Amino acid sequence: MIVFRVFSTPNSGLGHIVRCQYLAQALQQKGRQVYFIGDVIADQVTSFLNEVPFAQLYPRTPEQWDAKRDAQATLALIEKEHLHPDWVVVDHYYLGAAWETQLIQSGFRVMAIDDLVRPHQSQALLDFKWRGSDPEWVYANKVSPNTQLLLGSQYSLISPQLTAQSRLQHPQSSSTEAYTVLLSLGGGGDALILQQLLAALITEFKQDSASSAFQTIHFQVVIGPLLKNKESLTAQFSNQEWSGCQLTFIEGKTNLDAELTKCDLYLGLAGGLVYGLRAVKKPAITFSLSDNQNTDQPLLDAIGHYFHLNQIHVQDFAKLARWVRVCQQNPQRIQKLFAFSNVLIDTLGASRVADYMISGILSSLPPITSKNHDWTEL
Question: pLDDT above 70 covers what percent of the chain?
Answer without folding.
Answer: 92
